[in-house]
Amino acid sequence: PAMHTAAPLLALMLWTVGMPSKARCGRAGDTLLTEMERKAADRFRERQKSVPFRLLYSASEGNETPHDLLDTRIGRSSVGKQSTHIARASFQVDAFGSSFILDIELNHDLLSSEYLERHIDHNGKTVEVKGGEHCYYQGHIRGNPDSYVALSTCSGLHGMFYDGNHTYLIEPEENCTSQEEFHLHSVYKSRLFEFPLDYLPSGIFLILLLFLPRVEDETKYVELMIVNDHLMLKKHRLSVGHTNSFAKSVVNMADLIYKEQLNTRIVLVAMETWGTDNKFTISENPLVTLREFMKYRRDFIKEKSDAVHLFSYGDVMIYGFHIAKLETST
């Protein structure tokens, strides 16, 4: 029979969602979030600013030219229809004394065919939308077969790349007064990922051993649902779109590592964002929060998935709780 069990937070996802948030205009009531962001920023060894370029290939001239327009959308989307993004793209990021050319392809396997986004608005009304904007890419650094890249391009470049020695995070900076610096990005070199990406913490292998036996034999698929709590929404200035985009970007990064190292894919089946308040108390005691989250999943989440993950912006960093549905034989 199927059973529900609590599993540790995936270390990779914990690390990636702990990225410091972009610089932004101050708002009343943001004191707590500002302190959290300061603590999260302390976790990174180096930070540099960079203006990335998209490289456009000219068939007639047989070369690439840099362009400051990073958008990968194809034309303009009609009202009520999600934008479509190009299948392949290349970007140049200059940082830490190196010029990284990131060649990426759209991750067509990230969202399931029945993918659903749901949020509860300020009036308490539940709003559901099938599908979602897909701007999530994976690839490699040009000329470096040992590299990895995972980026989203919905609004600037957000994600990570690994050059065989160091892991870098990239995100757009948000300028409060000038549109001229819209393409200015921050690039971070993380303290926490000094080891190569062919090593993953044992907790991840434990989860895979439990419900993904014989990973090396064939490609496995983990169907995942994400729940963003209200503090996650506040972190993204109460924008459901930005919150969902951030969460999908994090899952895209995790999928890249699972795909390359463990022959396992992560597929998002649904996402829920709490627009008014948390649906249960997020306690400082993780076991209490986990228990409440399990109750919430049992009583209110109807979507079928192998695991449900809660993203919450906690006291020091964003953290999560992972509930996996494990199939065991009798």
Automatic annotation (TrEMBL):
Keywords: Disulfide bond, Secreted, Signal. Residues 220-315 form the Peptidase M12B domain. This is ADAM metallopeptidase domain 22. Its main location: secreted. GO terms for biological process: proteolysis. It comes from Naja naja (Indian cobra). Residues 1-25 form the signal peptide. One of its GO terms (cellular component) is extracellular region. InterPro entries: MetalloPept_cat_dom_sf, Peptidase_M12B, Peptidase_M12B_N. It is found in: Secreted. One of its GO terms (molecular function) is metalloendopeptidase activity. Pfam families: Pep_M12B_propep (PF01562), Reprolysin (PF01421).
